Amino acid sequence: MLRWLRGFVLPTAACQDAEPSTRYETLFQVLDRNGDGVVDIGELQEGLKNLGIPLGQDAEEKIFTTGDVNKDGKLDFEEFMKYLKDHEKKMKLAFKSLDKNNDGKIEASEIVQSLQTLGLTISEKQAELILQSIDADGTMTVDWTEWRDYFLFNPATDIEEIIRFWKHSTGIDIGDSLTIPDEFTEDEKKSGQWWRQLLAGGIAGAVSRTSTAPLDRLKIMMQVHGSKSDKMNIFGGFRQMVKEGGIRSLWRGNGTNVIKIAPETAVKFWAYEQYKKLLTEEGQKVGTFERFISGSMAGATAQTFIYPMEVMKTRLAVGKTGQYSGIYNCAKKILKHEGVGAFYKGYVPNLLGIIPYAGIDLAVYELLKSYWLDNFAKDSVNPGVVVLLGCGALSSTCGQLASYPLALVRTRMQAQAMLEGSPQLNMVGLFRRIISKEGIPGLYRGITPNFMKVLPAVGISYVVYENMKQTLGVTQK
């Protein structure tokens, strides 16, 4: 990112290891565009943008607020120099922590070793991509000067933040996701970045779920009614729903699906943080295994909290026109005729489905991402959002394939009280009945419309998510 510094802004200083004050003065003059001896936030942002190194509004503001000691809204040369000196000291500590053999250079094997101690496993080739992005002289090693120039204006303060700079992730919700939550730094928590990112993801999820709601309702109808007739297909299912309740009926149950996003997300992220603390000692880094266990348990906790809304969503989706006037009416009728226990019908298969879904989703996602980095990445360790979304869609699909039979049984248990003459079977009984009457394919009824909604859900969610992040001022990672 800052490779040009050595050749353009600091042609003498960078190459001949000039005094820090000389290097800082050269940079300050470049940023002080009006020559008044001070740099304001606008000049800093415009200067970095014109130099081809925009960091994002929050990162630039962090540099400015940290350096502006007298809080006059401007950086004079002394403040600018002090900030860079302090920042260089932090970068020097990070450099030394990676330079395991103390030879003054960072090699690919040292990056692999350092990240392993932090609970992150990458290949030698991925480590070389990291080096390549920093290496200015083509030696495939990074010395202190290259390291310093690369991170000169990056406000990361330690090796963990630098790793977050190397790692890119998205917080997109596509409707059936039980994926492990992203982690937020203390700075992101203090600055409010965390709730903005969650809000952006929640709004994106609401728009995405609403856009694909007809396919979601069709999936539920095929799961519940498919056993009665083998004739229900995608076209016939849509025709039956429109004939019974009109076009609007295609979105029946979507209100509940959207409403549960906020509490589900909030509980999942809160529980994830608590489980991480339980599974790791203070100061210990969270590894992949701990993330998987914490994520699975957080998903289970969130599902326990919002599960009655899942039941109501199914009842509304399966119900006939006029059967329920809304969410409240649906809840009141279930409570009156079936009792509190009805709100947790299908809870056991739903809970069991979380483990294979979350485990396979995480494992396949990391496998696909690593495969792409090892075989297709050329000059960056960041796969880019298109690759990450593709990995996410494929990993989610694999997770759904493994957990779908449990999801189908869950839906049948949620809805079987509405089906006239249907015996009230438990999970094992339903599995036996489906396999005996419909065979193994019966466990996958409705999976086609479920898969049909993945790509549009991902696309819509991404577009809305990125636009909401810009609107809410979420910094790019």
Note down, in words, how this protein is organized.
The chain starts with a helix and ends in a 5-residue tail after the last helix. The radius of gyration is 27 Å and the shape is elongated. It is an all-alpha fold and 477 residues long. The longest helix is centred in the middle third of the chain and has 31 residues. 66% of the residues lie in helices and 2% in strands. It has 23 helices and four strands. The protein folds into two domains: 154 residues, Recoverin, domain 1 (Orthogonal Bundle); 286 residues, Mitochondrial carrier domain (Mitochondrial carrier fold, Alpha/alpha barrel). The strands form two sheets. It has a two-stranded antiparallel ribbon.
Query: How far apart are the first and last residues' alpha carbons, in Å?
Result: 14 Å
Q: Bin the strand percentage.
A: under 5%
| CATH homologous superfamily title of the largest domain | Mitochondrial carrier domain
Main beta sheet: strand number and arrangement? 2 strands, antiparallel
Strand order of the largest sheet: 1-2
CATH class categorisation of the largest domain? Mainly Alpha
The total of beta strands comes to 4
Number of domains: 2
Radius of gyration: 27 Å
Shape: elongated
Mean pLDDT: 80
- What is the H-and-E element order? HHHEHHEHEHHEHHHHHHHHHHHHHHH
CATH architecture of the largest domain: Alpha/alpha barrel
| Backbone structural class | mainly alpha
CATH topology of the largest domain: Mitochondrial carrier fold
Percent in helix: 55-70%
Give unreliable regions as ranges.
Answer: 1-18
Total DSSP helices: 23
